[in-house]
Amino acid sequence: MGILRIGHVSMRVMDTEAARKHYENVLGMKTTMEDKHGNLYLKCWDEWDKFSVILTPADQAGLNHVAYKVEQDADLDAFQKRIEAYGIHTDMLPEGNLPATGRMLRFHIPSGHEMRLYAQKECVGTEVGSVNPDPWPDNVKGAGVKWLDHLALVCELNPQSNVNHIADNVKFFTDCLDFHLSEQGLVGPNASIQAVAFMFRATKPHDIAFLPGPKAGVHHISFFLDSWHDVLKAADVMAKNKVKIDLAPTRHGITRGETVYFFDPSGNRNETFAGLGYLAQPDRPINTWTEDSLWRGILFHSGEPYAAFTDVYT
Length: 314
Ligand SMILES: [Fe+2]
Prior knowledge:
Helix content is 19%, strand content 37%. The protein is α+β, with helices and mostly antiparallel strands. The strands form 2 sheets. Strands 9, 10, 11, 12, 13, 14, 15, 16, 17 and 18 form a 10-stranded mixed β-sheet that branches.
């Protein structure tokens, strides 16, 4: 019972057709639906629900909302009570407010980002089906990402004015949404400031990450691949398509993920990553990265600061 996984992200893009080409040809997603407002709905080949990414025409890049799927419809009522009791306003959007999707519980997490929970979305099946399925389909384009895996939000951190929306989010996700902390970065006097946090619901090292910044935004949305070789091939696909790569294939210390970062045509940062890292469990000791090793946690090989990675986001 409760939250299963990330269900979709709704992203703002400035050129829908350029975005469609990117998410279809580079990432390898498929457009499953379009609506009269010009929104595109896409899914990855190993996802069974109708969409995991919504691309919304806008004059600025960024995140509209992130939605997580819960197991039972009644979970939505239970979460509504808990979130309201925590002091956060919610509203319940009726079924069909978002096409092919059941009712959605909408609220803003302490960092200001809009989050939604839902229980139902039209199931269209994976590309290989579920009867005697092949291990992979023949018609995959580009990097052939398997599923939307997680997202990383930039949250305001300003110790001078006592603002730490990373710690505030960790408390809210723990107390209200039953997430668990897998990894954290502690900085400042006596390591008193929680500056980075990774949280999970099931068995993956993270389903959401919180990173620090001067104002709220989205750092990246991330898609899963099977292997380090697939990450290398994804970077090849980006080079072939003249996609701007942010960070060439490397490894994270945090989560142990193998990764490449790049940008969609509107400047939203994408990640394709591999490696299930480790078995995340509620009783697993939390990994802590100290201030002198925090960049090692992010870029394990160099361990060196890379300012554009933290300064650039949408
Ligand atoms: Fe990531």
